[in-house]
């Protein structure tokens, strides 16, 4: 499955809450790119082949799944299969690359939506979570298509992604922090498996580019300049500010709004104030904050979740683009 000359097929592989939509927003006005968000998410989380039917989670989360299966709001998502999702991706990719359009796809997807189910279920076994990498394509993307992509692995500090995921997932999906579903969407195991596979096989395709979300927000100029040079993009078209979108123009789906409302309500990159967590990380200090926000029991469980992901995060971060 070949791509034409000078076509980038940029694909961002990420975890939830890694600022992937913000990252894509920076490049949304690139004349050479056509953006596509989450082609596999409906199949993975809402369709008939969704992985939640194979995982252990609390009754409340199961009730939410049952409600969504009967809801008119989810009717279109509930019938999407992985094959249909890949067909959508291929149509978008080939449509962008058509001679009359002459663009390249710029797609992002959460890795929990792309992973092969057998791989994820294997890693749910206690003795597997500490296993290192193996050399195979762990995703549902065909090998020949994966080899045509320009892969970006987007990461963010677990002490930021895991609490953020807990805020959204406990509210929207009613997950509990010990549910298997929560681990599947917060672990960096999938990013590491995919990175190692791509890295080992980079002679047959582009080497993976690792981007830390810290640089997306705090080193935006330097990161954008580097990526534009690397992918032959227009630096002048990178946007760090934009007009705030009126609420009446927000997506008409409650779940989409639930996950993206902060970006929808923004008018540019929000850098906050004070020292970023990554510059002065103290797990005990963060646990005190989590205790105040979530209660002591959840805070201790969250601390264990963060500590468990630090090794894979630091490993991936050691390969991040130099800024």
TrEMBL record:
Protein known as:
Uncharacterized protein
Record organism: Salinomyces thailandicus
What does UniProt list as this organism's lineage?
Eukaryota, Fungi, Dikarya, Ascomycota, Pezizomycotina
């Amino acid at each position: 499955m070949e791509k034409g000359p000078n076509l980038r097929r940029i694909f961002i592989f990420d975890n939830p809450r890694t600022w992937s939509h913000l990252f894509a927003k920076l490049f949304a006005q690139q004349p050479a790119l056509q953006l596509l968000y989450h082609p596999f998410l409906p199949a993975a989380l809402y369709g008939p082949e969704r992985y939640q039917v194979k995982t252990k989670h609390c009754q409340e989360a199961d009730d939410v799944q049952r409600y969504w299966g009967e809801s008119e709001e989810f009717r279109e998502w509930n019938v999407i299969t992985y094959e249909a999702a890949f067909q959508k991706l291929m149509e978008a990719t080939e449509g962008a690359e058509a001679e009359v359009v002459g663009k390249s796809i710029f797609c992002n997807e959460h890795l929990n939506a792309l992973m092969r189910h057998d791989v994820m279920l294997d890693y749910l076994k206690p003795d597997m979570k500490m296993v290192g990498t193996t050399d195979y394509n762990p995703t549902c993307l065909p090998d020949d298509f994966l080899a045509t992509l320009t892969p970006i692995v987007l990461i963010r500090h677990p002490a930021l992604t895991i609490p953020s995921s807990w805020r959204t997932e406990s509210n929207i999906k009613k997950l509990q922090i010990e549910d298997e579903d929560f681990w599947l969407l917060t672990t960096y195991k999938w990013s590491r498996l995919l990175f190692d596979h791509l890295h080992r096989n980079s002679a047959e395709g582009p080497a993976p580019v690792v981007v830390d979300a810290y640089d997306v927000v705090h080193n935006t100029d330097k990161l954008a300049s580097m990526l534009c040079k690397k992918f032959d993009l227009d630096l002048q078209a990178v946007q760090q500010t934009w007009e705030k979108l009126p609420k009446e123009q927000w997506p008409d789906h409650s779940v989409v709004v639930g996950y993206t409302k902060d970006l929808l309500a923004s008018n540019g990159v929000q850098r906050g104030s004070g020292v970023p967590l990554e510059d002065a990380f103290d797990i005990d200090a963060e646990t005190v904050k989590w205790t105040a926000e979530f209660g002591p029991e959840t805070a201790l469980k969250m601390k264990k979740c963060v500590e468990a992901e630090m090794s894979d995060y630091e490993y991936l971060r050691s390969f991040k683009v130099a800024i």
